[in-house]
C-alpha cells in the first residue's frame, strides 16, 4: 500500500524517478562504447521530463568520460537501482548557511561537475547524522574536522521494486516504526543487512575509532554479528585506498556460520575477504595436516558426563588457554633461543670470518623482530655474503704466502736439489691450499650451520608438554598433581598422534615465534564473532602472529558454552591483551520479543552472571509455552501439528532444538517415522535449507535464528549446571516470534527452579 497521504509524496516520487533514471544513464554510459554513448543517452532520455533542477546534471551527461566508472561501482549501482536510497536528511550547514538535502543509500552517486551528491553512501561521515544525530543542533566529523549545523528533517523511505511505498518522518517523539516493521518480518535463515535501521548504540560500535581494537559484550540478539559485519563494511569504505579486502579476515565459529553470514556480505560491499574458522586458519599457518579432536568433543563429553576427572580436565582446558601458559611458553622460548646461538667462531679454512659472539648478538638483538628460524636463515645469508666478499682476499693471502716462500726459495743458496724439492712441495701446498679454500668457500657456511639444531614445531611442543622435568622448570606455580596430570594427559594425546583445539593457541604462538607465518595469511584486520568461546591465549596468539591489534571482537559471556576453555572476563582481554581497545556493551535485544526475552533472562538468572540485563526492543508475542509430552509418537505428532499451525500463520522458518546431537539424531529418526514434514538434521558443515524444519543441537544453534523454535527434550534434559543453563539460554534466544518447550515435565527446562514461572505459558497435550 502506498502512503500517498504524505504531503511531500509527489515531490519524493519525482526525486525517486529522477534518481532511478540518472542511475540507469550512468550504468548504460559506463557500459557502452564511446560511439554508442550519445545514442544510448538520447534513447534513455526519450519521453522523460526531468525537472529543471536537473539541468546541471544534463550538461554533465554530455561528457561521457565523467561517467566512466569502475566495474565494481557499476555492479553496485545496478544492484541498488531498484532501491537507490532509504533515507533523507535536511542539514543546514553552519559553515555555508545553506541547506543540504541528502539522500542516503547503500551506494554513492555524485555529480562530478557540481560535486553535489545525488546519493550519499550510508558509510560516509555526513550520513552519521542520520544514525546519530537527533533533530536540532548536530555535528559530525570528517577527516578530523568537525562540521556543525542544524538537522531539520530525518525521513525514511520504503522502496520496493523501484516503487515508493511509504514515507515516514522521524522526530524526537516517534518510535522507530521502520525498525519495528523490519523486526516483525520473517527470518530467512540468513543474516540480513540493517543499514536503514541501525540504532544509535549499534552505530557507536560500527563507527568507533577504526584505528583501535574494539571489544563488544552484546546480549543475545543485540546485533553483534550484524554490526561486526557492518563495521567491516564501514572500514572498507573508509580505508579503501589503504587496504585491500584480502587483508581482512572474519573468524567464524564454524562453516555453518560462514554460510549463514555469506549473503549479507556482498550486500554490504564486503567481498573477497578471508572467511574462515580459527581451526582452519591455524592449520594453514602451521602448514601441516594434524589430527585434531573435534572442537566440540569435550563439550559433548561434559554434557554427557563422560569425563572421568571433570575438574582436572576443565582445569587443563582453561590452563592451555591461559596467559599463564603463554608465560610458560615465553620462558621456554628463551631457552630455545639459547640452543640456537652458535658457540664457535666461524672459520673458512684458517680464516676466522665472524666471531660467535657477534653472531649471537645479531640473533639475540639485531634480528629480534624476526621469528627464530628466520633469524638463523638471515645469519646464514650474512655468512654466505661475507664469505663471497672475503673469498678474493683469502685467496690473495694464500697466494701471497706461498709466493713469498717460493720467491725466498728461488733466491736461497741451498743445495739445488733440495731447493727444487722445496719449491715443488711449496707449489703443491699452494695448489692444495687454493683447492681447499675454494672447496671450503662452498661448504663452510653449511657445515657451520649444522651446529645449530633444527627441529620442527611439533618437536618443540611435545618436548615442553610431555617432559615433566622440563615443564616443571617453567611452571613453579602449578602443583605437582597438576604437572603430573597435565604431562600425562598431553603424553596420551601424543601417543594418539592427536591434538585438541586448546593446543592450537600454543602451536600458533610457537609457529609465529619460531618460524613465522606465510605473508598471505598475515591479514591486517580481524573480526571475531562468538569470541566468548575463545581463550585468552588464543586471542593473544592471533595478535602476536598477525603483528596487529586491529581486532573487532564480539561475544556474549552469557552464551559462553565453552567457558571451561573460554573467556570469563572481558577486562582481562582489554587490560592484558588489547590495552588500546575500547570496550562497549550492547544491551538491547532486537531478535526476539519481550515475552521470549524475559523468559530467557529468567533462566539466565540461575547463573548469577554479572552482566547487564538484556532489554528487549518493544515487540510482543505469546509467552513461551511449555507442552508436556507423553509417548514419542504423540510428541512428534503434537510438534508437527504446532508447526503446521505456525506455517499457516505465516511463520516461515522453524527449528527443533535438542540438547545434544544424540538427542537430535533420535528426533530426526522419530520425525522420519511419524511425520511427513520435510526435515533437515543440521550438521556443522551444511548449508541450512530454508524450506525444511531444521533439527539442530543446542550448541550448534548458537548464532543462528529462526522464526519459531521448539526445544524438545526426549532423553536429555537441561540440568542446573553452567553448561546446561547456557545451552538452554542459547536455544531460547534463537526465535524471532515463537518459542515452545516440549518435555516430560517442567524440570526438563529448569522451570521448577526459576523465580517467576508465570513467564511461561502452558499447554496440556
Ligand atoms: N538495528 C536493527 N534493525 C533491524 N534488525 C536488527 C537490528 N539489529 C539487529 N537486528 C536483527 O536482530 C537479529 C539478531 O542479530 P544478530 O544475529 O546479529 O545478533 P547477535 O547479537 O549476534 O545474536 P546472538 O549472540 O544471539 O547470536 C537479526 O535478525 C538482526 O537482523
Automatic annotation (TrEMBL):
GO cellular component: cytosol
Group of enzyme by EC: isomerase
Domain UvrD-like helicase ATP-binding residue range list: 197-593
GO molecular function: 3'-5' DNA helicase activity; ATP binding; ATP hydrolysis activity; DNA binding
Domain of life: Bacteria
Binding site for ATP: 218-225
Catalyzed reactions per annotation: Couples ATP hydrolysis with the unwinding of duplex DNA by translocating in the 3'-5' direction; ATP + H2O = ADP + phosphate + H(+)
UniProt EC number: 5.6.2.4
Xref: InterPro entries: DNA_helicase_UvrD-like_C (IPR014017), DNA_helicase_UvrD/REP (IPR000212), HelD_bacillota (IPR048228), P-loop_NTPase (IPR027417), UvrD-like_ATP-bd (IPR014016), UvrD-like_helicase_C (IPR027785)
The entry's keywords: ATP-binding, Helicase, Hydrolase, Isomerase, Nucleotide-binding
Protein's GO biological process: recombinational repair
PANTHER family assigned to the protein according to its UniProt record, in alphabetical order: DNA HELICASE IV, UVRD / RECB / PCRA DNA HELICASE FAMILY MEMBER
Record NCBIfam families: HelD_BACSU
Name of the featured protein: DNA 3'-5' helicase
Organism, scientific name: Heyndrickxia shackletonii
